[in-house]
Amino acid sequence: MKREIIQTQDGSTTIHLPDWNESYHSKHGAIQEAYHVFIKNGFSLFEGKPIAVLEIGFGTGLNAFITFLEAQKSVNQTINYVGVEAYPVALDEALQMNYAKQIDNEQAQIFELLHQTDWEEKNAISEHFALTKRQQFFQDINDDNAFDLIYYDAFGFRVQPELWSEAIFVAMYKALKANGVLVTYACRTSIKNAMLSAGFSVEKLPGAPGKREMLRATKGLVKN
Predict the structure, then answer these.
(1) What one-character DSSP code corresponds to residue 3?
(2) Whole-number Cα distances in Å, 64 to 67, 125, 194, 210
(3) Which of 16, 101, 107, 131 is the most buried (most CB within 10 A)?
């Protein structure tokens, strides 16, 4: 499938798949969407606490990179980060992303390290941040009570509806610890209903620029 690197509206880059008319990140701004969805409405809930994060769609490494940067702001916050990707981005393509330049160029080596570390192994990126990259189909995830937070960043429902099914969210529910949280950029009635059927409590939140709403799902809480 043809792939091209494009610039989004906030100046950050992403990978675009013209055959699908689908991109790895929002064309309205890759970085600003990632911060809004995954940091503001997900990671910030666990500020200062040790946390295990599962990312569904490791992709360009942007979400892992900004999570590393945010964790640096807290004293001794430990992060165990697991990124799952069925079709990993090639190293040379990933290193063309301009995220370090846009956010914190002093951490460019960290962004490169995220992509250079071996797959299927737990890698110490820093004293407080460990990364495991798993090449795996999302449908095959079978973790149990392992994560505090899930970044659900799969390709959109329009091109891969099977990744937004009740069965997928049952697996996500199982993977989370009690009171764990899943956040995603998506907000579609069928997705919300799939989450509810899987057992989640679900809330709509304001979306990133260019998108009206997003979803946050919580395990083990009853929403009043």
Answers:
(1) -
(2) 5, 11, 26, 23
(3) 131
pLDDT averaged per 10 residues, the chain (length 224): 94 95 94 97 94 97 97 89 96 95 95 96 96 96 97 95 96 97 97 97 95 95 46
> How many domains are there within the chain?
1
Q: How far is residue 160's CA from residue 155's CA, in Å, rounded to a whole number?
A: 6
User: Domain range spanning residue 201?
Assistant: 29-218
Does a structural domain hold residue 8?
A: no
Q: Is residue 224 part of a domain?
A: no
Q: Is residue 11 part of a domain?
A: no
Taking a C-beta distance cutoff of 8 angstroms, is the pair 12, 26 a contact? no
Polymer length in residues for the chain: 224
Backbone angles phi, psi at 146, to 5 degrees: -115, -20
